[in-house]
C-alpha cells in the first residue's frame, strides 16, 4: 500500500524526533503547518527548516503530480509576513513624510510580493523591485 503525501509528511516529522509535534495538512489549500514544542535552540533553526521542508514536500508533491505547498513551522512564516507588512507600512510613511525614496533590505521574491501587495492600495506611493539576485529589494517612492 502506497503512502499518501500526508502520511509521508507526518512520518518525516516523526523521524525528526520533535517533541509533541503536530502536523496540520490542508491538501485543498496546499498548506502544511507544523508545531513543535522545542526549546530555544530550535528557534534559530526554524527559517532553515521551513525552507528545507518546503523543498522536500514540493519534491514529494511533484512526484505524485501535485503542486507546491506553503510550509510553516511554529508560525514562523505567519509572523514574518506580519513583520514585513509592518516594515512596509513604516517605510511608506517615511517615504511620504520625507518625500524621499526608501529602499528596504534585500528580500526573496515571496517577501517582496508581500511588500508590493501591502502597499498596492496606497495612491501616494509607488513600489518597485530593484537590484539583482540575492540583493534584490523593494524601493518605495513617494508620488
Q: What can you tell me about this protein's structure?
A:
The structure is a single chain. The protein has 143 residues and is an alpha+beta fold. The protein has two domains: 5-74; 78-142, R3H-like domain (Ribosomal Protein S8, Chain: A, domain 1), CATH 3.30.1370.50. It has helices spanning 5-16, 40-43, 46-63, 76-98, 109-119, and strands spanning 22-26, 31-35, 70-73, 102-103, 125-130, 137-142. A three-stranded mixed sheet has the order 1-2-3. Helix 4 packs across helix 5 (109-119). The chain is elongated, with a radius of gyration of 19 Å. The mean pLDDT is 90.
Topology record:
Elements lengths: L4 H12 L5 E5 L4 E5 L4 H4 L2 H18 L6 E4 L2 H23 L3 E2 L5 H11 L5 E6 L6 E6 L1
Parallel strand pairs: 2-3
Antiparallel strand pairs: 1-2, 4-6, 5-6
Helix pairs in contact: 4-5
β-strand amount: 15-25%
Category from helices, strands and their pairing:
alpha+beta
The description of the largest β-sheet is: 3 strands, mixed
What kind of assembly state do the chains in view correspond to?
single chain
Order of helices and strands, N to C? HEEHHEHEHEE
What's the β-strand tally? 6
Mean of pLDDT: 90
* Overall number of structural domains: 2
Strand order within the widest beta sheet: 1-2-3
In DSSP terms, counting alpha (H) and pi (I) runs of 4 or more, how many helices? Answer: 5
Distance between the termini: 61 Å
Uncertain spans: none
How would you sum up the global shape? elongated
User: What is the share of helical residues?
Assistant: 40-55%
Compute the CA-based radius of gyration.
Answer: 19 Å
Amino acid at each position: 500500500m502506497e503512502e499518501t503525501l500526508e502520511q509521508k509528511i507526518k512520518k518525516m516529522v516523526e523521524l525528526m524526533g520533535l517533541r509533541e509535534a503536530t502536523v496540520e495538512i490542508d491538501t485543498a489549500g496546499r498548506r502544511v503547518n507544523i508545531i513543535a514544542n522545542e526549546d530555544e535552540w530550535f528557534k534559530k533553526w526554524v527559517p532553515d527548516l521551513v525552507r528545507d521542508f518546503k523543498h522536500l514536500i514540493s519534491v514529494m508533491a511533484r512526484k505524485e503530480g501535485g503542486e507546491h505547498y506553503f510550509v510553516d513551522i511554529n508560525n514562523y512564516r505567519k509572523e514574518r509576513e506580519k513583520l514585513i507588512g509592518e516594515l512596509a507600512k513604516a517605510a511608506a510613511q517615511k517615504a511620504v513624510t520625507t518625500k524621499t525614496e526608501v529602499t528596504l533590505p534585500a528580500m526573496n521574491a515571496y517577501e517582496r510580493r508581500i511588500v508590493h501587495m501591502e502597499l498596492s492600495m496606497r495612491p501616494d506611493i509607488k513600489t518597485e523591485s530593484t537590484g539583482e539576485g540575492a540583493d534584490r529589494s523593494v524601493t518605495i517612492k513617494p508620488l
